[in-house]
């Protein structure tokens, strides 16, 4: 399947990422995290340090890849709450690269982020710098999702040949599973045995298999969104304009119902409008990420379209575990990559994949 | 460390295992299981079928191995209760062999049992037949133990380079862990994710590393003990003579306190003497295997020495999960391999390794 990137053709692409780009990258990745994907702050610090030590990372497109190139995806796996405290070691990414090259039987030249949302969008930049690899200006989700099956290559029908996991102790596990659902199950078990957090390398890709099977331009897009956020005096408006997003409501958090269940954060948040939105109420359903926005019994936006709650003053994304009573927030919603709107995309990541008995209605902008 | 096998020099060694040897092998492995190691019946059937289909398996000694030989250990991993119902597939052992050869970077020629006790002593004979491999007349425990760390090669200081696990679904996981405690932890997690039972290949050995680091002659010994059991009109006495074991008591099970906890069966069984033992009471502490025999506050025998409860009529071993009120039983105890009596052996598998604040007193025969 070949699809056109949502916004890439008309917008500037970066050709490298330098230390000065990391702050906007982190702010942008938090926006694409739709409430999940892990806190970006420690990733931001580690990535800045890596780029200062090793210099900028070359950012390439799928078109730049040739027959000698081999791409591997690296990401953190585990509970974001553990990730705040358990840092990774330099030897983990070296073990991953060695394990991936052994399993692939060839040299790896290029890294890609599994998800551009949250810390998993930021960290691969630093890992590429430390490992001397190129970084693909793309990711596997165009946002953040909670499970391994919810990845663009799976939508496109590309099989995952193997996964390598490394923990901070020095244990390395290589998995060849019959499908991504089994990979999710086994990888989650090993992650728990390793203390709740691992780094993983999986989904080896080539120029051929990557084409049309990844979501392109997302590293550049995250830096662009972060720049808009950090440089504007009206950051919410600037971010919305950059993303072609709608502001569904501006208001105040008046209720947070949140429980940790089966390794996920689930619940809902209720927002009461202020100013011109006074009198309106919206409820957002959560599972790690923001999933569905409801108002007066009507669905305004639903997964896989993107919903991010931002601070109304600063424009910075607020992740689901940081939502608190009384926060002044704005709710942004925008259209997902077209790949997620295919039959297979919705089967893997539509509202029903999250247990909601709701049809998917594509988000095309605010109706009111 | 080089040690002399306990009983080998004076006793006959088999040079092959044929279908007709499997029934005595299974009965003998159950005796060496000391109450654990998994029920032997389905393994016996599968192994008989494999030997009928593929012919006898060549049984070799460490001295027979040359520089071209590479040994791998194969075993079932998981709860014996699951093993009764979940059968393995032919493709699992093929996947294990392929995974082990890939990880070792060489052809594997020889299989060894991780533990001679229970089904893990029986099944490798059939696997060797199906895979066309030789079988080493040796194992890693000389009995059964519940954890991966409790293995002779670990006592001898030989590192485990890797482990490969395969489940019945087709998932294959290769692990390189920093030590056996981490291997136990990760392998247990993957086993649970696979539904409670996996087959595993681990501890690659060569002629050099195997010497003095495995317990030799145990396949022959299990067949010999099984023959004694099945061919005698006084099977308890015949087994005791063959093993140089003492009969600590003959009596009746009057209490079984047993709970499943942390993936193990724990508890104790109380036996009241009958006949010439009338008036005596013994309690045996359990963790999957029989660990410690107590009478009048005195320790009569303790792990790593071997304690097996047998049916007083048939001589067949009764595993810890099959103990029932009213059974007529005899308790056999005999000395473990000298390797387990070293400082390192007792550190890994002495009474304190099982949480008992007791010194190890070598079992040298019944005192009364």
Task: From the structure above, extract its key features.
CV3147-like, 30% helix, 11 helices, alpha+beta, globular, 16 strands, disordered N terminus, 368 residues, homodimer, CV3147-like fold
The fold-level CATH name of the largest domain in chain A is CV3147-like fold
Q: SSE order of chain A, as H and E?
A: EHHEEHHEHEHEEHEHEHHEEEEEEEH
Q: Number of helix segments of chain A?
A: 11
Multimer state: homodimer
Distance between the termini of chain A: 35 Å
Strand content of chain A: 25-35%
The total number of structural domains of chain A is 2
What structural category characterises the helix and strand content of chain A? Answer: alpha+beta
What is the CATH homologous superfamily assignment of the largest domain in chain A? CV3147-like domain
Mean pLDDT of chain A: 92
Helix content of chain A: 25-40%
Do you know the CATH architecture of the largest domain in chain A?
3-Layer(aba) Sandwich
| Main beta-sheet strand count, sense and barrel state of chain A | 9 strands, mixed
Computed over alpha carbons, the radius of gyration of chain A is 19 Å
Global geometry of chain A: globular
Low-pLDDT stretches of chain A: 1-9
Q: Quickly name the level 1 CATH class of the largest domain in chain A.
A: Alpha Beta
Protein name (chains A, B): DUF917 domain-containing protein
Domain S-Me-THD N-terminal (chains A, B): 21-176
Pfam families (chains A, B): S-Me-THD_C, S-Me-THD_N
Domain S-Me-THD-like C-terminal (chains A, B): 181-362
């Amino acid at each position: 399947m070949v699809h056109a990137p949502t916004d890439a053709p008309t917008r500037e692409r970066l050709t490298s990422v330098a230390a000065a780009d990391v702050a906007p990258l982190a702010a942008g990745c938090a926006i694409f995290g739709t409430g999940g994907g892990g806190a970006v702050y420690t990733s931001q610090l580690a990535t800045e340090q890596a780029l200062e030590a090793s210099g900028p990372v070359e950012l390439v497109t799928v078109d730049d890849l040739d027959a000698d190139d081999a791409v591997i995806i690296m990401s953190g796996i585990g509970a974001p709450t553990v990730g705040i405290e358990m840092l990774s070691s330099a030897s983990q990414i070296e073990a991953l690269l060695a394990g991936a090259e052994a399993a692939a039987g060839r040299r790896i030249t290029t890294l890609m982020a599994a998800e551009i949302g949250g810390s998993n969008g930021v960290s691969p930049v630093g890992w590429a710098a430390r490992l001397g690899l190129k970084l693909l200006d793309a990711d596997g989700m165009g946002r953040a999702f909670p499970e391994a099956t919810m990845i663009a290559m799976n939508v496109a029908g590309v099989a995952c040949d193997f996964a390598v996991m490394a923990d901070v102790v020095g244990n390395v596990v290589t998995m060849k599973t019959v499908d991504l659902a089994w990979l999710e199950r086994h990888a989650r078990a090993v992650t728990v045995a390793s203390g709740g957090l691992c780094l993983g390398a999986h989904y080896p890709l080539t120029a051929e298999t990557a084409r049309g099977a990844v979501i392109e331009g997302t590293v550049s897009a995250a830096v662009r969104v972060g720049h808009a956020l950090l440089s504007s005096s009206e950051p919410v408006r600037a971010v919305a304009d950059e993303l072609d997003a709608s502001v569904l409501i501006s208001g105040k958090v008046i209720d947070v119902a949140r429980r940790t269940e089966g390794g996920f954060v689930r619940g809902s948040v209720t927002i009461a409008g202020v100013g011109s939105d006074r009198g309106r109420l919206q409820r957002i359903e959560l599972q790690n990420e923001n999933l569905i926005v409801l108002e007066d019994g009507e669905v305004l936006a639903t997964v896989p379209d993107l919903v991010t709650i931002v601070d109304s003053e600063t424009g910075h994304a607020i992740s689901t575990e940081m939502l608190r009573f009384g926060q002044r927030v704005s709710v942004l919603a925008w259209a997902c990559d077209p790949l997620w709107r295919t039959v297979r995309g919705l089967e893997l990541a539509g509202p029903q994949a999250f247990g909601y008995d709701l049809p998917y209605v594509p988000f095309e902008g605010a109706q009111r």
